[in-house]
Amino acid sequence: MSYRLGFTLVELTLVIAILAVLAALVLPRFADATQDASETAAQTNLAIIQRQVDKYHGMHGEYPGDVLSDWFVGGTLPANPLADFDTASVVEVQADGNADQTEPADKVMTAASTSAWWYNPGTGQVRARIKVKADPVESLLLYNRVNGVNANSLADLIATRDAARAR
Question: Which CB contacts under 8 angstroms, 24+ apart, belong to 23-29?
């Protein structure tokens, strides 16, 4: 009587192939979940900042000249997870000359616009900037989803992408 004490090479290869197919099916879903979580966190933090600006407006009858970190728990402005880590809590305040502007000229982070958040004290609007994507349309769609707007300007995104490629 002979007994087998292990698996054959064919059996092991078959199991490894099945595991590889399952991994190929499951892993992209985790990547999408990570991006979705970052977008949701950015939307939540944007809403927190906007709420504080609106609260200031309700108490003082005007929008604040700046977004102050001491308004938030821990004295820190909420981070934008779609921005670069070192500038994730930086706010660019719109210049007075464009008090009616509701969207930033640069919707994505650039060398000139490194701040993660944009704020216009004339309108009280706060927007989240995003890192530029390879496809300008994808960048604009992400910007619109996160900020809950319907911006349709691709010109600044295309110029930003081309400038980034030139570097």
Answer: none
Backbone angles phi, psi at 95, to 5 degrees: -65, 150
Q: Give one DSSP letter per residue of 39-55, joined into a string.
A: HHHHHHHHHHHHHHHHH
Q: Who's near 157: CB < 8 A, 6+ residues apart?
A: 107, 108, 132, 136, 139, 140
Angle of helix 136-147 versus helix 155-166 axis, rounded to 10: 120
Output phi, psi for 105, to 5 deg: -65, -40
Reading across the β-sheet that carries 117-120, which strands appear in turn? 91-93, 117-120, 125-128
SS3 159: helix
Per DSSP, which regions of the chain are E strands? 91-93, 117-120, 125-128
CB atoms within 10 A of CB 9: 8
Q: What is the rounded CA–CA span in Å between residue 123 and residue 53?
A: 10
What residue has token string 């009858």?
A: 61
Does pTM surpass 0.90? no
3-state secondary structure of 138: helix
pLDDT tens for each residue of 59-68: 999 999 999 9
pLDDT at 107: 83
